[in-house]
What does this fold into?
Amino acid sequence: MQRRDFLRFTLAGVAGLTLGGCGFRLRGFDQQALDLESLAIAGADDAFSRLAARRLEAAGVAVREAAPSVLNLGTERVEEQRLGVLESGSQERELTLSVPFSVQRRADGAYRLNQQILEVSERFSVSDDNLLVGDELREAATERLRREAVRRLMDRLRALPPT
It folds into this structure.
């Protein structure tokens, strides 16, 4: 092993120990699996529910109608708010995505998770010079918000005790 390789490995090890010691973790790394074999999804057939179904299947949960528990998803709502008072130039905007959800046992209708609302928000700037880019920024921010809301939904489903 050359001296240069040795220094690289040593620096990588020191950086890993330093970051690990302060509580830093990569998102999605070393997460516990979902304790659900299958889950039904009820609600609107929108982009959020389709993304949630894909993520559940990727996590090893079978999404099927005859599942013992049902994930009730409400319709996603996206609100946009202007944060600045200026009428021209660059404008700061905030998008907020909210989705109500609950988890219900099919056998007796009891709630395993009472209705809750996932809410995530993101800020972005829109310039008057190019309004078409503003629509693209809004769409990209909405997609990021959906991914973050589904990640938070998965975290809440991980907390469910096994059935």
Summary: The chain has two domains: 1-30, 35-158. Residues 122 and 144 are 9 Å apart (CA to CA). Strands lie at 38-43, 62-63, 69-73, 77-82, 90-105, 111-127.
